[in-house]
Model the fold of this input.
Amino acid sequence: MAAVHESPLGAAAPQSPPEGEDGVTYIGVRHHSPACARLVRDTIRRLRPAHVLVEGPADFSGRLDELLLGHDLPIAIFSHYRDERRTHASWSPFCEYSPEWVAIGEGRACGAEVRFIDLPAWHPAFAGRRNRYADADERYAEVIERLCAAFAVDNIDALWDHMFEGDDDNGDLGERLAAYFDLVRGESDAGEDDTAREAYMARWVRAAVADADGRPVVVVTGGFHRAAIRRLVQGGDDKETGWPDVPMPPEGALGGSYLVPYSFKRLDAFTGYQSGMPSPEYYQRLWEGGPEAAAAGLTEVVVARLRKRRQRVSTADLIAARTLTEGLARLRGHRHPSRTDLLDGLVAALVTDDLDQRLPWTSRGPLEPGAHPAVAEMVAALSGDRVGALRPGTPAPPLLHDVNAELERLKLDGWGAVNLKLSDDRGLRRSRVLHRLRVLGIPGFTRESGPATGAEPVLEERWTLEPGEHRLPALIEAGAYGATLRDAAATVLEQRAQDAGTEIGRLAVVLFDAALCGCTDISDRIAGTITPAIAAATELGGLGDVLGTTLGLWRHDRLLGTAGSPLFGTVVESCVTRVLWLVEGMRGGPAPAEPARLRALAATRDALLHASGTLDLDRDAALAVAERVSVCAEAPPDLRGAAFGLGWSLGAAADPVRAVLGAASPRIVGDWLAGLFALARDEVLAAEDASAGPGERSVLAVLDELIGGLSEHDFLIALPALRQAFEFFPPRERETIARRLLERRGVRGSARSLLRTGRDPLVLAEARALEERVDALLAAEGLASSGAEVRKETE
Done:
């Protein structure tokens, strides 16, 4: 693709302006491209410029010595930022064949002044972008699609290899790259973020030209930006002098940048990396030894991986793979095998099964689940497993030092299983440290067992410690949340609470994690997020679960230290207010009782009974709500019964007998009783115990009369709900009720045997209802007597 020839699209390709005007050589690159890295290397060695300007965070320019300490690549600059409105984290990764990395090293080697010239990572221009070196493929997808069609390739990766990576002779590479990027950018509009970045980088270039005193200046940026920066420099204000200021974060914002070890897995497009260059191990070998050596070496690696998985691969298969790879390269017009030539040749030689999926290198994005095992091994071999390492003494965030000190002090810096007694002060401290690391997502700390809700009497935890290569980068990145382990964990919990919104289940998990981390005393930060979310929640059952768990921890938990916690007290207050508000607004006709909302009201009752003297809970307001809901004909039956039970349990003057009589309809009595028993079971039994004898009218006595007076049809209607209602009594209390009923009827017998039936009562009731329907049908057809005879014979 020459700059002055017809493009494959049928129109003249843009003419690339001659390089070197004003002493500036602009090199537009694709990030992590060996071909571009070679061009950058050769250009700097040839020109020996006064300044080398590189797309990268300008606020890191003064720390370039950290990059050149002798780390094992890949590494990345990790940048973080947080203010009241926005949290942002991003990475600027480098491997040995990154053009930016080569520019820094070669520039320093020839004595040039090397600077990063892009806006800092915290700048709003990078909002939503987690990787500085992400290619702008989505911005010029249409032209790329047309180019792929013209060159008969599947995607941009194959297109790039076909045009640039397959030739180890630079030749006119600079012109071809310029024409390619000019063509791509010529049909794409830059957004405000790109415009701001390009204007800022152009200011650095103008300052470098003014300072170079006629010596060359080399500018290395993403190809998408190259032409725009050049135009801005040539049309810039000649009066502008001096180096641009580096923008500083707003007052009150927190942020910083540190080097972190990176890995080929994180760099690979097949694992979702946004830069767009897949198979980093292939390109590493291409950079080190050229395309022939890369193809030959990785063919052997793939065969070795398959044999390790006990796949049969013979020497003949190996020879066939090499032959097919070379044949495909010649067929496609490549001087040397490209990455797709290698992969296609390996599949043709080594995979004999039918493939259910498209080959992953024919499209973009991560490897899909269910890929053929041999294909997965090929992708893994070309991806590689290299992991970077920082040179000892590299500056690190305070969190890293705090965590290392904590782990060493508590003997948690080793390997293997760790058993902790939570009743022991040291065990509890160790548990909190491990939970804080878990909340931060630090790998190598896995809890195998322990308390799950805070309500169960579990006094021990079991953890497995597995230090690994991914722990260091994770800790450095977690440094964005705080300088100490405790502060960082609290920040993550606060952020998780914000992300949960009104999803009460997620908020409950956050609260329990706060208890496990020992962060419940940081009430202003977490409660400030959770309280508004509770106030907007609409899920009554979820609110009840949060309230029940939190109230229990607030009242009783001495183990985790949450008893009397201000945070949990605030949550209890907010939940009670919201539950009562939601309950009063609920409307609905006869419907089955909903245990979740009954549990929410039961938890509200417990909070009012046990915490109203300490917390800001309005008992009188709750009684008023209970009274209004209990007499509201539009409220669901179970809520009416529960509201009556709430008032009764809180000491309101109540006539339970009259209330039961008011809910005597067969279609609602069972559900109404479910609500009553869920909230006032103890009061029902206490009233029964206080009755003087068979003549007294208690709730159960009136209920006995009502049920006994039902017709068989009405009884069958009421039976399922009645059974559900009495399940709120535990077995021992149900036996007591059965005994009282026998006494009232003057019947001698075993109450326990009365509760035990040979068959499920609902099954018997359904069978009886079926018999009635059959009898009615037979009677309608004049066959009533014969039906009775048949049934008698069947019995």
